[in-house]
């Protein structure tokens, strides 16, 4: 397949008539808890605090800013200030806002693409399994040797001891 290479100067300019269109506002579609939850979860995946605050702002618009402010226990001006972006909003405020819009923050393990058999276990559980495996391994104990044999091999007299 041949690849078409073009520069921005070669690209056509489209003059679209946008007079009959309106600006997209997510708040118009955030009409149930499942949609709101999915919308906020996706915004959190970006790991961008301003994007999360923009998403919370859209949810607040969808549910009514006055109602959300009242349910969160903050005044409307403080809510606007928190949601405007660029502000360092406290965790407590974000938690209150999320509860006010009907969602909660949850914690879950980070998904990994590891093929390791112990990766599906909880971190603490995996550590216990690893230490149990290490304890069950037999150790070589040297008897009456003064060092290693030639070529870095172990001396012939070794016994196995359990830990």
From TrEMBL:
Pfam families: dnstrm_HI1420 (PF21716)
GO function term, MF aspect, one: DNA binding
Disordered, as annotated region: 113-163
Entry-linked SUPFAM superfamilies: lambda repressor-like DNA-binding domains
Cross-referenced InterPro entries: HI1420, Lambda_DNA-bd_dom_sf
Residue ranges, compositional bias (Low complexity): 126-138
Compositionally biased region (Polar residues): 113-123
Lineage top rank: taxon: Bacteria
Protein name: Putative addiction module antidote protein
Organism: Pseudomonas syringae Cit 7
Lineage of producing organism: Bacteria, Pseudomonadati, Pseudomonadota, Gammaproteobacteria, Pseudomonadales
